[in-house]
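Duplicate of earlier report; Transcriptional activator NphR input re-posted below.
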Amino acid sequence: MLIKEERSNRTIAGIFVRGCLAGYIGQGHDPERLLEQCDIDTGILESPGLRAEPEAYSKLIRALSTELDDEFFGLSGQRCPPGAFAMMARACITSATLQDALRTSFRFFHMVAPSVQFALSVQGEEAVVTVNHVSPGSLSDQFLIESLFICLIRWSSWSIDRHLLLSRVDFCCPEPRDADEYSLLFPCSRTYQQPVNRIVFGARYLQMPIVQDARTLNLFLAEVPGNLLTRYRHDDSLTAQIKRRLSSTRYDELPSFEEIASHMNMSTQTLRRRLKAEGNSYREIKDSIRQDIAIYHLLRQDLSINEIAELTGFAEPSTFHRAFKKWTGLTPGAWREERSQQPTRVNDPEPALGSVDIC
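Output:
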C-alpha cells in the first residue's frame, strides 16, 4: 500500500525506500518486482512525495537481506551475512554496561563485516561513536550509515531501557534533499560533509546497566527489522517532548522546573520521576539545549566566543570555556579551529533564539 503526499510519523518516506534499493538495483536486479511482492507501489521509485506503510517497508528490508544474502543491502564492498545482527545482540546480552555492550558489538562486526569499522571514545562528558566505511564500493553509502546509526541508537536504548538522547550527528555525505525527514530520525544538531561519520551523546549513558536478558532479547529479535528501521517518527519520550517545546527560546528565558511541570500538566514530583526513569533530568535537558546553541554558532562563525558565552547564559567567558571543555574535551576556540578546517553544512534552523511555545 502507498500513501500519497501525506507526511506521517507512521509512514516511510520514498527517499528511504529508494535508499535501501540502491544496492539491489546496482547489482542488476528488478526493483519493481520486489516492490510488488512487498505491496509497495512502484511509483515510489520516481515520485518524491509518495510514502510506504511501515509493515510493507519492513517486509522489503527482510526481502532485500534474503535475496542479496547481505544485511548491508549490497551497499558495501563486503557482504554482511544475514543473522549477523542477531548474533551480535546475543553476544552482548550478558554485558554489564552499555559501554561493555558497545565494545563487544564493535569487535563482533570487525570480525564478521570488516568493511564497516566502529570506534567508541569519550571526550569530556560526551561519548562519540564513529563509523568508518573502508570498502564503500561504487554506490553511495548514505543509507547504510544512517541505518547503522539508527540500529545502534535503538538497540542501545532498548538494552538499557532508557532513551538515549543524542547531542549531534555528523555525516561525511552531502546534505540530503529531503532534510526534514532526517529531523525525525535524528532530532538533534546535524552537520554534513564532515571528515567522519559520528554520533555524540552523553558519556553517562555508557555506565548504565544492561537490563535485558535472553528472554526479552528473543522478543526483541522477533520484531527485527520492524522495531529498528521502520519507526521513522517523532521521539515521544518525555525528554524529547520537553526539548522540542524549549528549542525555540533563549537560554536565559527557559521556564523554571515548576513552570515546565505545569505546562506538561503534571506535578513536579511526577515530572522528576518520569525524567529519571528515562535517565535524564531537567538540568541535563537545559545543558543539551545550551550545547546546541553553542555548537550552532561556533560552526556558523557568526559570533565571537565571548558573545556565544553570553548567549548561552554564562556570566563569564572563562566559565563557558570550562563548561565547553567538559562537554567536548576541547575549548571553544580549539573546537571551532578544528571544525573550520573542514567543509560544513549545518542543517538545523537556528536553535533556541526565538520565543518559547508552551501550550
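Residues 2-229 form one domain.

Merging into the original ticket.
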